Amino acid sequence: MNILIIEDDQNKIKQIVEFINENLEEAKITKRFSYQSGLKELTSNYFDLIILDMSMPTFDITASDNGGRPKHFAGREILRQMKRRKINIPVIIVTQFERFGENTISLSELKEELQKMFHDVYMGTVYYNPALNSWREELSILLNNIKVR
Amino acid sequence: MSTRAKKRKRKGINYISQFHKFKNLNDAISYYKINLSNNELIKFVKDLSNNPFYRKSLVGNPFPEDISHLGKAKMLYATSNIREIFWNALIVYQYKNEINKFLILKDKFNSYLLESKFDLARDTLGEIQINFGYSNWLIENKIALLEEMEGYEKQKEFVNDISKNKNVDPLVVFLTSYFSIRAEKNVSPNKYNFRIEEIKREFNEANSDLKDLSEYMQFKLNLNTIEDYRCNIILSYESKMSIIDRYLTFVKICSFISSNVDEKKDIDLIKDSIKLLANVIRDPILSSLSLKLGGYEIILNNNSKDIITVIEKYTIGDYAGCIYLSEQLLKQSPCLVDIYDVYVKSLIRENAKSVFNKTETLLGKILNSLEDIITYSNRSNEAYIELLKLSYVFSSQYWSLQLRGLIVSLYFDPIITNNNKFITIGRLHASPVNPIQSYRFNSKNNAKEYFEILKSHFSCNQTILLYEAILEQNLEMLMSVNLPQDRLSKYQAKILCVEKQYNKAIPIFKSLMTSKIYINELDGVLGLAECYINTYQYSECIDLIVDAYFKNSNIYIKFPLSQILSEIETSFFEELSDNISLPIIYDIYSSNYSSDKDSIKSDAYEEFLYSLSLRKPSSLKNYVSYIDRSKLVYYLKNICVFHVMDNSIEFDNTDEVEKERILVCQLLREIDPSNDEVYAEEIKNITQKQMIQKGMRDIEKSKIYVDVEGIKKSLEKNLKESYARFITLKSTSIKDEVPEYILVDSSEEEGIQIQIKMPSNEARNLLTTMILELRDSFVSSNEYGLDGYLSVGIRHGTLSGQLRGQLEAEHLITQKDNVTGKYHLNKYWREKYSTNKDSEVDTLMEYFNDFSSDIDELIDILKNSWIQIKTENKNSKGLFNFQITIEDMEELENFLDKDTPYEVFIDLIFDMLWRKTDTSLRIIRDRISNTLKDKFNTVFELLQLKVNLLKESIDVTELNSNIANAKTTIQYELDKISNWFTRSKVEESSNYQLDLPIEIGLEMVKNIYPNKTINVIKKDIDNAILNGRTLKSFVDISFIIFDNIINRSRMDTIAPKVWIEFKKEGSKLRLTCINEVDPNFNTNEGNKHLKKYRDMLELDNAFELVSKEGGTGFPKIKKIILIDLNCPHNIDFKYMDDKNFIINIEINAEEIIA
After folding, report:
1. B725-734 pLDDT tens trace
2. I need a labelling partner for B820 at 20 to 30 A (CA). Which of B412, B694, B807, B919 fits?
3. Gyration radius of chain A's alpha carbons
4. Does B948 touch chain A (CB under 8 A)?
5. Can you point out the beta strands (E) in B781-875?
6. Rounded to whole angstroms, how far apart are CA atoms B15 and B43?
7. CA triplet B13, B82, B209: central angle to 5 degrees?
């Protein structure tokens, strides 16, 4: 399975990659670290699954770039861009936040919105808390759903 | 009538005689208030009010003589909404004569107020107080008047007297304090609304028992919305107040009910109450409310005929007559809002001036602001806010309610104005003879009936016919109305729109758009937009709106932009993607309403470029002649900006976006030369930012530094001698001697033993000494060595600040107390969780302490263990490993022979030391990127784990978000720190060499003037270091000098030659710049001109010339040096005989040289 992870948290990527490698055979994982680099990757290559963070910087953070504007809804924006560009790849959101924007939208409201707006590709949202195991269970269920699909 | 009621009637029950059966009088009256029929209730109230003993329990205190009596009456039990309204009408009825007298004085007060005869207005309020005692109405208006006539302080004095009086009812104090806030000149309606929302939240959060009181407060104070209040609760609370308040609240409630869409149902229910009072109280609002009930005659008053005559004048196009009559009428009755708009529109159509001066009277101010709103002048928004504020401050006055309805209907788009309750209530307060009342009727029959009544009073009136034709949508009838052609066309097209005959309406609106009178043109544009929307001609629609917007940017408010954009997004976005108006209209929406469609605006920006097969906007330079110039300029100027372009997939990083913006600005300078300075300034700013960022990056990379030349110089004398001796000894020594090895250091912890070869002869001994001496200088010299730079640039505060700063920003760690060694309390979260149990919050505080301690421990490891110089005998854990091994010695020795020069020998040692430095740096980077990051993650996860344990009792959502943010950020900070451990050339953190501002200045002019160049022949700049804080100032100075060269050398075809010298001379800095000028230029004349500049610079007000020169030039240089840098200085400039211009700046720079 060809998987694209778009995520700016290095440790979270590490954990997710480890989990996928333990649970999926022959998973080929590509990593991107910002809204723009993620969007470019998914518009130029084919993937079977995209795992998306919700809040990310606009560009990759490097020694010469601070990443540009932080985008609180980068994940939702990527889903919107996929829809605009007619890219139909299943997407799982993995987020560390329970509220978004300036505390304006709750996680459950966001899930509802994503389901309504992107029901074709949106598979679900996993709340990631490295201190808890539940994210692994939630991700596992969603990965199984994709395998069945 | 119920059987019980019939029985009571037959028996003629005396209710008073039954009172003894109740616990108290209040219970008794409440019981009958709830249970009697309407007719019984009338008798009951009459009986009780005639009896002085019971009267007080029935009506409370209708005229409180002292403010402490207001609000103290006992509340009866509330009954149903309708019954409560009826009960209130019955009580008010008892005071019909007093209310009538009050209404006369109220009108008098309002007239004085609008005429700005404040003294008389104050006297009238005094008269009201004497006759009718205190009321909330009186307090509210007294506050408003005091603010208007004597200002904030007097107003607050009055309010303080009330609030400090312990005898005043708390409810009255509370209301008073908000009347006062509302009246403050600096409190905008929005700010006030925000405060009211806050108290609503506070009430709701505090206690559910306060729900009723909260609703009453909202009714009295909320002016932002009209809610469906529970009338029984409101009137119940109001029964504590004066009869004036009770009457006005009764009217307000009936108005609110009347403004409901389903008016018929509700208005019927209050029919009896209105009927009861309309017959005895001479208040036009009761007459207007009665109109809806049918069967009532319009009660004409003195003004009725005048009002309809003025409106009629306008209808038939006798604008001069309308102006004349309006002015006569308004001088007598300034509160006649009915004629405000026809008066102002007549003034506009006649291009005449009002006799009511905006600075002299409140009325003049209102009329002037109305004109701004109607014409959508640059002041329109300000004017709307001003009038809205006025309507807030005098919210209890009928004219203000009518005015509010008027400004809402004039200012906003049809989506907002359709069924708007403020407009409905405003119209309700219009004169009953004003045909605009007909808009309030939901039923056509009721409206027809109303017209018939009007016609019976005013036959052959054209205005009535016009309203009737509009209501009937009857074109034939309309054509028979005596209207001027332009307005006839407007109504004709409007009726065609209602009949959905848009194709017929479109040419009429188009012809209106060609009118020379702006309000006709506006009618044309708005009508045409409506036609396009209804016929799905969105391309034409957005072009129309954008064109109208370019002509008058205040007009956006009249278009239903949100609705238009939603329609486009649903069905027309792709179709419109090649229309440049599409991104523009999204930008108009974004600039004036909300950023919620900014992502779609970015799509529209991108799609427009793609439609031309372009990827970046700077490529539009080849399409300049094909695209509407004003739209192209708008697109490039406002849409091709950083925050839009960075959404485009065509850019990979911030730098690319910034460079593209510079190209866009360069293109704009060509196609929009009138704004050249704006674009040049933007280019300058971006360039400066980029260069400074680069400077900062360079500085970050320059933390690893050794002053090799300094070391060489300082050791040269000794080493040279030793080396000469070493060469001599080496050439005579025994060649095959076996070296001895001795143990010089051991580390039990690491299990390593360090051995070096000790030469058994003097030559080797000397070599070892030289190498160790150089190594020690390299790493430890206070002046030149690595450790000094590590100490200053990294270990001393910088490293800790870089890491702690991010965590402090998320409120996760606190500082340690220097004395106690304990961490400070985390006040942020302590306050956030102030309503939680102390024990739980204490536990959380403990977690923060542990977290702070863990983080500091990690920083300490990095700082005090890893980033230390390790040699044979110190810092065994240091990662800068400069131990000299046997292999190092042997390798070096192998390179040396008797012919090896001293310089080569020294360089060989430095090469070895730099190799060791590089190895150490690699290890440190690796250690930070892996080990340290993992350790930080572990500390964060531990905190998250602990915080989650409190999840059941504390809402940790925000805290978890902060931890997640900090955890991600810290990883990048560690990457950044890791990058410090690379070798580069520049010196310290933010201080800079003299050449940096010169280079930035040159780069800026290069970007701003891409087609002009400066030919720099010589740059003689020394290495002096200036304090980092002065960089911007020197960049500005150098830019001004180069900008002058470009613009004033008069060398348009050849790049002028330039010589730059920037030097530190003792405690002074000297910047000299010489540039060529046009050889044909008369330098003598030029010098005469320059003398004026020099003289001006000597003046005390020289800095005032900064802006007059457009922000560039010598006064600005003087200002920068004297004010920004705070340095004594001397500036001299002149044309030289040899056709060159010279500027020489000397700065006494003691304070700014690093």
Report:
1. 888 877 765 5
2. B807
3. 14
4. yes
5. 869-870
6. 10
7. 105
Amino acid at B10: R
8 Å CB contact between B704 and B917? yes
Interchain pair B599, A80: CB under 8 A: yes
Closest listed residue to residue B1016, CA positions, set B980, B977, B982, B1062: B1062
Burial string for B556-568 (b: 16+ CB within 10 Å, else e) reads: bbbbbbbebbebb
Q: Do B657 and A8 touch (CB under 8 A)?
A: no
Give the three-state DSSP class for A23: helix
Helix, strand or coil for residue B820? coil
Please tell me if residue B652 touches chain A, with a CB cutoff of 8 Å. Answer: yes
* Chain-chain contact of B649 with A130 (C-beta, under 8 angstroms): no
* Contact check, Cβ <8 Å, A131/B945: yes
Contacts B650 to A, Cβ<8 Å:
none
Residue in B closest to A71 by C-alpha: B647
Strands A49-52 and A2-6: parallel
| Residue B187 token pair | 């409190």
- The Cα B514–Cα B527 span in angstroms is 13
The tens digit of pLDDT for each residue in B771-801 reads 988 998 898 876 677 876 676 567 654 677 6
How many Cβ atoms from other residues are within 10 Å of residue B1084's Cβ? 10
Which residues, at least 6 apart from B975, have a Cβ–Cβ distance to it below 8 Å?
A: A61, A63, B929
First to last CA, chain A: 13
* Paired sense of beta strands A105-106 and A99-100, if any: antiparallel
Q: A-B interface: how many C-beta pairs under 8 angstroms?
A: 85
Number of Cβ within a 10 Å radius of residue B540: 17
Asked whether the beta carbons of residue B979 and residue A63 sit closer than 8 angstroms, the reply is yes
Mean pLDDT along residues B984-1003: 71
Give yes or no for a contact between B435 and B453, defined as CB atoms under 8 angstroms apart. Answer: no
Element (H, E) at A70: strand A70-71
How near does any CA of chain B get to the CA of A17, in Å? 16
- What ipTM, to 2 d.p.? 0.94
Residue-wise pLDDT tens digits, B564-588: 999 999 999 999 999 999 999 999 9
Give the SS3 label for residue B871.
Answer: strand
Task: Name the nearest CA neighbour of B91 among B268, B292, B219, B281.
Answer: B281
Report the alpha-carbon distance of residue B1065 to residue A22 in Å, rounded.
69
Q: What is the CA radius of gyration of chain B?
A: 43
Q: Which residues contact A42 (CB under 8 A, 6 or more apart)?
A: A4, A6, A50, A78, A82, A87, A89
User: CB distance from B131 to chain A under 8 Å?
Assistant: no
| Contact assignment for A99 to B937 by CB distance below 8 Å | no
Rounded to the nearest angstrom, the minimum Cα separation between A147 and chain B is 30
B653 touches chain A (CB under 8 A): yes
Please state, in angstroms and rounded to a whole number, the distance separating the CA atoms of residues A69 and B969. Answer: 14
Beta bridge mates, B747 = B752
Give A-chain residues touching B971 at CB under 8 angstroms.
Answer: 9-11
Q: Nearest Cβ partner of B649 from A39, A103, A132? A: A39
DSSP β-ladder status, B880-881 and B1015-1021: unpaired
For the record, the structure tokens of B115 come out as 């005429």
The verdict on B930 touching A (C-beta cutoff 8 Å) is no
Q: CB–CB of B697 and A63 under 8 A?
A: yes
* CB neighbours of residue A123 within 10 Å: 21
Distances (CA, A) of B705 to B508, B780, B788, B974: 79, 12, 9, 20
Give the Cα separation of B1074 and B1121 in Å (integer): 20
Question: Does B925 contact chain A (CB < 8 Å)?
Answer: no
Tell me whether residues B655 and A64 touch, CB distance under 8 A.
Answer: yes
Q: Give the pair of three-digit tokens for residue B410.
A: 């004039």
pTM: 0.77
